[in-house]
Amino acid sequence: MLTNLMIPMYFLLYEPSSIQWLGFVLLGIFVLLFRQSYFYLKWATPILIVQVGILLILAAVFHPMYTFMGFMIAAPLSKQKLPMLLSITIVFTVAMGFIAVPYLDLMGSLVWIGLVPMFGICILPYIIRTSTRFQQKSARLRAETAERMAQQEERQRIARELHDTLGHTLSLIALKGEVVEKLVHRQPERAITEAREIRETARAALKQMRELVTEMKVTYLADEYKHAISLCSAAGIQLFFQYQSISDPRPSNGGTQDALVNNPLPLTPLQETILAMCFRETITNVVRHSRATSCSVLLDIQEGEVRVSVSDDGIGADMDQFYTSSNGLAGLRQRLVMIDGRMSLSSSPGKGTEVTLHIPRVLRNEKVGSA
Fold it and tell me: 0.70 exceeded by the pTM?
């Protein structure tokens, strides 16, 4: 960045004093906008348009080589939606063509040097964009591989649990069943005793099975949110979290861990598991299909329900397309129906997508909104 600034500043010192001030003012505005673009992401596109305009003014008033500063905004340009990126590069190329005409005869065989500054805006953003997409795909592939390995490990753990906790018990029941079969005619009283032991052993086995299934099935929203952070980070998507409740209706940007870990949701294990699974699928859709640069999650605990809203600034789509594409929305609705929940969806082309999961709240012996 410093090199990109030092070169135009050096040449500005040799410009006529009558217009020199204009060059430094434009350069200052360009640097200020460059800094602000990292703090005001919503204004990234207008800021870039103004910066490209400044480069064209510098090229027209002073010299085309001042567009060398275009290298500074190559990375932000690469994050723009493709139609906007194409529009900016086409307009810049055409404008530079008109500006550079008077310099063609002066440069002669060195005219190719004038193409170097244009590389920063017309070519480099596409290279960065392609490289970023490749890295994102590689990261998603690594994440999916890690997830498959985790699933395999979980299957092995389940197999060990079943073998250790139920294998011995079921073998004991089978053995006692053979004993009862042999004693039922010769020693009826002892056979009855053995049958009662079989019943108690079977009840213990059933209890073990229920405990094991409950432990395996419960999935927590806090764990899925941590996974979402990693997944979005790998895909180059900024993830924001907000929390609000009936007792504190103002959305809070902080306290993610407090809201998700220290304060359990007022939901049954089954409800939280389905909510976590639906949240996972929603975040996966954002990463795979939205082409978003940022994603916001709002956890809203109200008196009658718990809502989780996931909104992104991606490409969006027509509402009809959501129900015809393979994005898992039908599966989400089916899961939510199991717990009397529902899903609301809003989207339009170019304006992102918002998915809200509604789960009926289970009221316990606690103050409403304290969760």
Answer: no
